[in-house]
Specification:
With 381 residues, the chain is mainly α. It has 21 helices and 2 strands.
């Protein structure tokens, strides 16, 4: 019996290997909606050459959950023997809209592996991308990403990262990717120790960063709260890194990100998203939305945090910035609808889009004002 089970397992592994499927074996069959996933995959193939392909796949992406989107990608690969995410490279999608679709239909650890590879391979290092991925791994482990990285690129993620950074930042990243975050058995003593270290720290300095790479986020949150209570200025740890550290470097930015995420994940992502919108950083916009789109609850919390941030900054309209010189309006439209949990239902705004040099507002109102705003930016033919 045991021998028969081993033979069956071997046959399954050989079949998966021969097919070249692009997701780990445990992900297959995670949904019971296989028939609809197959229909969706066939639909994508049917509209592949259509002029409105961007709208069609955008509508599908906003109408499906994370698990359904991944299942669609799997069904597409089963049916047509080609990796769906890679096949999108040859579609009519362009720029950040294509990268957004690739991210939304990706198994999240695989998406993170691609983002890390983009950050470290080639000229220069994208430390912001490394920080965005590695600071806040709550539901996904480094091991998940490491496996996908090795499978996709055939090299060691750890080596590729650490060969591209240096100094104390390298030490911190080395700890983050090598160690697991722990719940300390004597948590109160650890929190007291960290609070004292930061309270006694010389202005502008950063105490030993080991606590931020090895502690679970709840412990970091507790330490931040205790520090806020003990510090005369009433600041928490993320604010300490923001205003008291004189020399802002990659290490400081990573520590601030970890502390901010531990204190309030939704607020952390809202502030990063707001910053990316103001700076026109479309790559970061995509990365943030994809990282949260695996959970509708996370997207709802993020949208609520954005509304709170808008009230605090006295911005009465919603913050979906649209700069024709820096991004595709349809990309921003997709982001807005993903955040608000809407399925795009009309393609009135689609057509042959040409940017015009007219001035545009920094902020636009939610939904009902988007159509008129987009009309100011583009000419429809």
């Amino acid at each position: 019996m045991v021998k028969m089970l081993k033979i069956c397992a071997l046959i399954i592994l050989i079949a998966i290997s021969a097919h070249g499927l692009s997701y780990p074996y445990w992900y297959y069959g995670t949904t019971t909606d296989n028939n609809n996933s197959r229909d969706d995959a066939m639909f994508i193939r049917t509209v592949w050459e259509d002029q409105d392909f961007a709208f069609q796949i955008g509508r599908l992406a906003t109408a499906r959950s994370y698990h359904q989107r991944v299942e669609i990608a799997l069904e597409y690969e089963r049916l047509y023997s080609v990796n769906f995410v890679k096949d999108l490279e040859h579609s009519k999608l362009r720029g950040e809209t294509r990268k957004l679709m690739q991210g939304l239909f990706s198994y999240l650890p695989d998406y993170y592996a691609v983002e890390i590879n983009r950050a470290v391979i080639g000229l220069g290092t994208d430390e912001m991308a490394l920080n965005d991925v590695l600071c806040c791994l709550n539901d996904i482990t480094v091991d998940d990403i490491r496996y996908e990285y090795r499978r996709r690129f055939g090299s060691s993620m750890d080596v590729d990262i650490l060969d591209d950074v240096s100094g104390e930042y390298e030490i911190l990243l080395g700890d983050i990717i090598a160690l697991r975050r722990l719940t300390w058995p004597h948590e109160d003593e650890i929190v007291e120790l960290i609070t004292k270290d930061f309270t006694d720290a010389t202005l502008g300095t950063v105490p030993d960063s080991w606590f931020f790479s090895r502690s679970d986020y709840q412990t970091i949150k507790k330490a931040s709260y205790q520090f806020e209570l003990s510090d005369n200025n009433g600041i928490n740890l993320s604010t300490y890194f923001n205003i008291k550290v004189l020399y802002r470097d990659d290490l400081t930015e990573m520590l601030r990100s970890i502390a901010s995420f531990a204190e309030d994940p939704a607020k952390y992502y809202a502030e990063r998203l707001w910053q990316a919108l103001e700076e026109g950083d479309n790559a970061r916009l995509t990365r943030i939305i994809v990282s949260q789109a695996y959970s509708q609850e996370n997207l709802e919390k993020l949208n609520s945090a954005l509304e709170v941030l808008a009230d605090v900054r006295e911005v009465t309209s919603w913050i979906m910035q649209g700069n024709p010189g820096q991004g595709d309006p349809f990309h921003r439209y997709l982001l807005q609808n993903l955040l608000q949990g809407n399925v795009i239902e009309t393609q009135e705004y689609m057509g042959s889009i040409k940017f015009t040099p007219q001035s545009h507002p920094t902020f636009i109102h939610t939904r009902e004002y988007f159509r008129s705003f987009l009309g100011d930016l583009v000419v429809f033919e």
